[in-house]
């Protein structure tokens, strides 16, 4: 329809007709006077107290952006979750069905395109009815209803819902104000602009605001695709959303719909055949339940929760957490995240093989999280629970993968990390190389006693810890298997995950520098990211410190990226309702580890998967990894990577962190001993074999030869009395391809 402008009053006798009502009833006198004021003002009549009141009312109305739902999207644009306090999605008028536009005009304001904001005929009819003792009748035009909705929306947006007045709560001055504002709006906006604003604001019941949200909720359709009967049904709802709610009161809704169709027929918008066919239909709803927030996320609900916490915690999005929450729920944000749906679904599917939500009586927790090396992008974040799981399934409020708090002390919803076990050992090895040592330098892994007062070097503080059975309650340093207490290359010590080899290397280093190496790769305390991984007690060299899986995956990705560390990021972009970009946290990528050091670590961690502690879980691509198991298998890990993906896999108890997982039901069986490769490793293997090929799986750079091989020792003169003796001094002879000791597969444990 053409947007047609006409004077405010379409007859010269309107004022006289209104004035005639003044004597009808003293009860209605004040109301009539209030409603006639605009006419008098426009006609240029004498000034009265009523006119003064009218003149004093502002005719400016701030039409801000209505409360719009925000959407969190995966990296491919697919929907993860929607946030709102009013479910609304704005659409332009050309994206709304002609049937819908006609239906709303037909039933709410038949002369919409003829008046200038006030329909005098309807106004007089309403006044006459009330003056004669009849029921109160509505006289509001679509423009007046639009004004009223803008006022309500403004109060709601400002948190002033107590100021909202509906129906009989309105006083004369409220109605007069709406009239004057309607006149003003008609002068500044076209009919199409007003109709578009109205259809995007009005309530269609069940918390659906605007026709696009209503079309989707009731029919699973877009506003542009609404047919005649659907349009008439929705147009009927706005008069009394509760009474004409098609879900709760379908008979009322059909009755009102048919009235709308009658109006459309009378006004020539449809013909008799269209009318009769539409009237013959039922309600025919196709309800699409509104999904609000992360609990109703299509996937990755804990990643969704992490994203919302990142936004609500960041001052870039508002002056207070309340303001930032309001922006999320009302700002119409489009939040595009780093999540890869394919990786996310593959990660989530792995848990069904080991600790499914529906058959996990011991509540064994599992988590997988993937970071892209060189970018910091979080591509997957999965765990084997739901925030609001059905009865009988594993539910948890905690995100197993992330820290408890951010650097400003704001909550992130995480479990605060878990003891990382032997997955921490590569960082001591990285500092070993960084300090000028070589991968194949010999270390004495036979040393098991580290008594009180052992001269640990720690320029950051003092380190303590006793491994010596000469002290009451203490024991010598242990390896997982008995035959490993002798000299090894540093390489062998790491890929076989020997505690004594790690201590032998650390004893030649400054522990402060080991800590700095950990910090350079992003490792920090899982409960306080401002605190570095604590090496005050040397037991932490073996993993008695809590770090979250996300941070561990990010740290290992530093090696995969040739020593480039990136902070893990979850956000690619955020735009507001106008399409304007908002800032997102950067990854802050920088070279924090020397490339040759990263290459040296990679060369050894690849052997973990071929002849070390992870020999059972190799990938079909070039890959590196480290397993980890705490003393009583309370927490078991495999953290590994290709050039394109770095993934941390954890299994343990999020609720009882000191509980052993040995003997618990995992993968439909109970076994006496679980280590890092047993289930965490197999979960990692299955996931990475399935998904790594979609990303970079090229070979890792090789470390320089000078970092690998020690200089040839000066050969001592042979003592004649030693002639013919075994130079291995009774130890097992080297059997590995590189001349190193190669244990049997049944001996390889973390």
UniProtKB/TrEMBL annotation:
Residues 77-264 form the Glycosyl transferase family domain. Residues 705-750 are annotated as: Disordered. InterPro entries: Beta-lactam/transpept-like, Glyco_trans_51, Glycosyltr_51/Transpeptidase, Lysozyme-like_dom_sf, PBP_transglycosylase, PCN-bd_Tpept. Residues 484-642 form the Penicillin-binding protein transpeptidase domain. It catalyses: [GlcNAc-(1->4)-Mur2Ac(oyl-L-Ala-gamma-D-Glu-L-Lys-D-Ala-D-Ala)](n)-di-trans,octa-cis-undecaprenyl diphosphate + beta-D-GlcNAc-(1->4)-Mur2Ac(oyl-L-Ala-gamma-D-Glu-L-Lys-D-Ala-D-Ala)-di-trans,octa-cis-undecaprenyl diphosphate = [GlcNAc-(1->4)-Mur2Ac(oyl-L-Ala-gamma-D-Glu-L-Lys-D-Ala-D-Ala)](n+1)-di-trans,octa-cis-undecaprenyl diphosphate + di-trans,octa-cis-undecaprenyl diphosphate + H(+); Preferential cleavage: (Ac)2-L-Lys-D-Ala-|-D-Ala. Also transpeptidation of peptidyl-alanyl moieties that are N-acyl substituents of D-alanine. Transmembrane segments: none annotated. It comes from the Bacteria. GO terms for molecular function: carboxypeptidase activity. Residues 715-750 have a biased composition (Basic and acidic residues). Keywords: Carboxypeptidase, Glycosyltransferase, Hydrolase, Multifunctional enzyme, Protease, Transferase. This is Membrane peptidoglycan carboxypeptidase. The lineage of its organism: Bacteria, Bacillati, Actinomycetota, Actinomycetes, Micrococcales.
